[in-house]
Amino acid sequence: MTYELIVPPSIQRQIAGFPVGDQAELIAFFDRLPDECEQITEPRGLEVPDSPVRMRIKGLSRLVVTVLINDTTITVTVIEITDPHGD
Question: Domain containing 12: what range?
Fold first, then answer.
């Protein structure tokens, strides 16, 4: 499953400085993302590199993904989803 995480322009500018493979920086950054960044859109079928990071998604305790960063979106591929509500 590949999804796009919609990110506001102010957050995009902050993300632009992170290399995709810099997992520690990305993990710390995603953990600080405000709620408005935690919106998942429909799958787009985009390929992503193998750079697993962990990232919070609203309604899920943890989502393990691979990440591709471009100018307007973060594309994530779902590896594992932990749902604290068991839904």
Answer: 2-82
